[in-house]
Amino acid sequence: MAAIAALWRKARDYVKTKEFRDYITSTHFWGPMANWGLPAAAFRDMKASPEIISGRMTTALIFYSMAFMRFSYRVQPRNLLLMACHGTNVVAQSVQASRYLAYHYGGGAGKTTAVATTHPDTATAHPDKATADPDKATADPDTATAHPDTATAHPDTATTACVCDLNDFSLD
Questions:
Q1: What is the pLDDT at residue 132?
Q2: What is the mean pLDDT of residues 1-26?
Q3: What DSSP assignment string belongs to 68-88?
């Protein structure tokens, strides 16, 4: 316990020095603090669908962070806070890249077929009714069937249905 108290006292004394105040008011501190938004956004996006990941941007961010990791180590004085930020970003973007590759090239994107029902003014997709087999896909029973050869409109509304492959909606 005495060691922790001594460490705390030493940290408190360092915070009161001019050297620490100069560091806190420099770009060596605020530049990395602003850059922490990149890995924070990547970690937040890990909860989202892999459909939103841009392969090109993820690759660019990996190489950008790798270059600035080297820069932050080579610059004098060394900026280890910037190096830690970019190292974290390389890890986060690499995870995103693996999710992108697994989704687009590992068979994740082509396995789902969405069913869309279109009305004159709006279009509504029904992902909860999606199926991998387009022959068995059906839209709302009150409106239409989703099979293109047998699509029929409900007698009271001008509604049509279609089967849409999610690969048609690429974000790249």
A1: 53
A2: 91
A3: HHHHHHHSSS--HHHHHHHHH
Structure-derived torsion over alpha carbons of residues 25, 41, 62, 48, reported in degrees to the nearest 10? 170
Q: For tokens 């922490």, name the residue.
A: 36
Tokens standing for residue 13:
């004394």
Q: What are residue 161's DSSP bridge partners? A: 117
Task: Give the CA angle between residues 6, 25, 44 to the nearest 5°.
Answer: 85
Q: What is the DSSP string of 114-172?
A: EEEEE-SS-EEEEGGG--S-GGG-B--TTT-B--GGG----TTS--EEEEEEGGGG---
- Write out the two tokens for 73: 């180590």
Eight-class DSSP state of 107: S
pTM for the model: 0.57
